[in-house]
């Protein structure tokens, strides 16, 4: 999924910062224009830009709508597409053509550069789109696409966690990761104790139902040091986490880079039609890059 804001703000992440627990309120962003589906963006947040290597969390639906995101570029990240209801068709510049359905994972590694599009029919859509920042030594890997229709489940009393990325409680997803992290959809039915990696910081997002101590909307941040999470209720939540990301990065529009000049170069390549390949089969023009801000983009810490 693209960041379709016409005037995207510079998002600067990486480095150290405070570790207090907090609620990260989302902001509403129209996906594709004022009449399009609205998404709730909880990462990057005004106070906390990342949780582990996770640097972008958009939650959308449930809503009867059609999604149409034209071809657009990415660098330095992985896109993670996860649906609860509906279907989305993915195309990319590698020639991939894959429909994603609930319970299956579409994972695209941008590396040095890739472009893709996403479309859906007019139907009930409910899901999340996430980005994972690639660490410095892996950020220029060859672009790649994976689809995983079957994922491992870590079950326990009162919960069943589908492991989307990384590892949870001894279960490991087949999806490629480039830093220690976890992403899981956790179905809760009753009282449960979900295992956590104490080396990770974590984020929790209520997807549906009612689960204590969560509420609809914000992403709840948990600092490192916890080896378990007590929850109760009935519903589904998203669990993300990872080792705190120690690098400084610059995130602007759909690019993750390390400094202003890299972002300028990425934008130039996209505008000139070089470096990102082409998406075949999409009926429409690629998404134009927005104008850069009038000041230089500077990398800063992952939290304010």
Automatic annotation (TrEMBL):
Annotated Pirin C-terminal domain residues: 227-274
Cofactor: Fe cation
One MF term in the entry's GO annotations: metal ion binding
UniProt-annotated binding residues for Fe cation: 72, 74, 116, 118
Chain ranges of the Pirin N-terminal domain: 40-132
Record carries keyword Cell membrane: no
Entry note: cofactor: Binds 1 Fe cation per subunit.
Keywords of the record: Iron, Metal-binding
Family: Belongs to the pirin family.
Name of the protein this chain belongs to: Pirin family protein
Originating organism: Nonomuraea glycinis
């Amino acid at each position: 999924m693209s960041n379709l804001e016409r005037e995207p703000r510079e998002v600067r992440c990486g480095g150290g910062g405070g570790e207090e627990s907090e609620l990260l309120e989302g902001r509403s962003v129209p996906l594709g224009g004022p009449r399009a589906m609205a998404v709730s963006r909880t990462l990057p947040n005004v106070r906390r830009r990342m949780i582990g290597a996770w640097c972008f969390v958009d939650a959308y639906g449930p809503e009867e709508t059609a999604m149409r995101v034209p071809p657009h570029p990415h660098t330095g990240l992985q896109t993670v597409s996860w649906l609860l209801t509906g279907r989305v068709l993915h195309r990319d510049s590698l020639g991939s053509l894959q429909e994603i359905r609930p319970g299956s994972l579409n994972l695209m590694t941008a590396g040095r550069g890739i472009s893709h599009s996403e479309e859906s029919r007019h139907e009930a859509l409910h899901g999340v789109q996430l980005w994972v920042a690639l660490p410095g030594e892996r950020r220029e890997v060859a672009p790649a696409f994976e689809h995983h229709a079957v994922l491992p489940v870590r079950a326990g009393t009162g919960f069943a966690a589908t492991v989307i990325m990384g590892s949870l409680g001894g279960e490991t997803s087949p999806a490629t990761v480039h830093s220690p992290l976890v992403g899981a959809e956790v179905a809760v039915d009753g009282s449960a104790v979900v295992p956590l990696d104490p080396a990770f910081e974590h984020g929790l997002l209520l997807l549906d139902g009612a689960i204590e101590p969560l509420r609809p909307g914000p992403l709840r941040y948990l600092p490192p040091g916890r080896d378990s999470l007590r929850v109760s209720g009935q519903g589904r939540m998203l669990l993300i986490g990872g080792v705190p990301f120690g690098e400084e990065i610059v995130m602007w529009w759909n690019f993750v880079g390390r400094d202003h000049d890299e972002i300028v170069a990425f934008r130039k390549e996209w505008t000139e039609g070089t470096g990102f390949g082409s998406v075949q089969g999409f009926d429409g023009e690629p998404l134009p890059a927005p104008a850069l801000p009038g000041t230089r983009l500077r990398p800063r810490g992952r939290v304010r």
